[in-house]
Design brief:
The protein is an alpha/beta fold. It is built from nine helices and twelve strands. It starts with 32 loop residues before the first helix and ends in a 17-residue tail after the last helix. It comes from Achromobacter seleniivolatilans.
Length: 283
């Protein structure tokens, strides 16, 4: 059973006033596929700060989501405009139709699912155990008993590490040798590389980035805790647009284009559910 808790590790506010903080935007106008084709432009709201899903490189928004959006725009025969905006303003902006939908990694929660039309999951984030590739002493999760673990302070990974240590102690009477907390995940990777820690606990997408940037240095030894589902969001009045997104994901999956993009950005296939992913009472 997948955990549907939020992806974000920071508090988000959906106050109506947040939308006022957005830059001056032209309204997308209308909420149908016919409206989008008439405008000749697919306009989406994104917070490009979650590599490799969506991030800025050389001044442009890139990433897994951007590549999928380009295919969607081509399918509609329109241009893509991907607006990089603060996360706090995305959902209020969606309700004001400042863009056609939100294309950023939003965690599916019961509260949000009653107010917004979530698409099928675009990603899943797991808490993985990353170790040095030449360290043969850690082959599975239970092998981290007696080891020094490192993770980001105040992140969602920290309570996962604490909970797993309780399980280790219950099962074997032995926890970690030490837990070291760092300011940011790249600091954790550096500590792993210089042997300050034996294992780094981090979200799977962050681990994929670190392994891509330092090929041959690290490997994944296992995962702990529950996975978190991420999705895009449509206006609840624009269910035709949500259906278009879901149908396009199905088509890209059937043609293996989605798999190729997942390998490109994450280094491996990403298994996301196509049904039973929304909480009770969801739109």
């Amino acid at each position: 059973m997948l955990n549907l808790s939020r992806r974000r590790f920071v508090t988000t506010t959906l106050a109506a006033g947040a939308v006022l903080a957005l830059p001056s935007l032209s309204f997308a106008e209308g909420g149908s596929l016919a409206d989008i084709k008439k405008r000749g432009k697919l306009t989406v709201g994104t917070e490009a700060a979650y590599e490799p899903f969506e991030f800025v490189e050389n001044g442009k928004v890139v990433g897994y989501g951007h590549d999928v959006l380009q295919l969607m725009a081509a399918k509609l025969g329109v241009e893509l405009e991907q607006m990089n905006l603060p996360f706090q303003g995305l959902l209020p902006g969606l309700m004001s139709r400042k863009f056609d939908f939100v294309a950023t990694s939003v965690g599916i929660t019961p509260e949000r699912a009653k107010r917004f039309a979530f698409t099928q999951p675009v990603g899943v984030v797991r808490s993985v155990l990353m170790v040095r590739v030449d360290d043969a002493s850690i082959k599975q999760d239970k092998d981290i008993a007696g080891k020094i673990i490192g993770t980001q302070m105040g992140s969602s990974s920290q309570p996962v590490a604490e909970e797993f240590e309780k399980r280790l102690k219950e099962q074997s009477g032995k926890g970690y040798a030490d837990t070291k907390l760092f300011q940011a995940y790249p600091d954790v990777s550096n500590a792993l590389a210089n042997k300050t820690v034996d294992v780094a606990l981090m979200p799977s997408n962050i681990a994929a980035v670190q392994m891509r940037k330092q090929p041959g240095a690290f490997r994944i030894a296992g995962e702990i805790g529950q996975a978190k589902l991420l999705a895009w969001v449509a206006n609840p009045k624009d269910l035709e647009i949500r259906q278009f997104i879901n149908d396009t994901f199905d088509e890209l999956r059937a043609s293996n284009q989605l798999l190729e993009l997942q390998k490109k950005w994450f280094g491996a296939a990403m298994d996301t559910p196509r049904s039973n992913y929304l909480p009770d009472g969801a739109i």
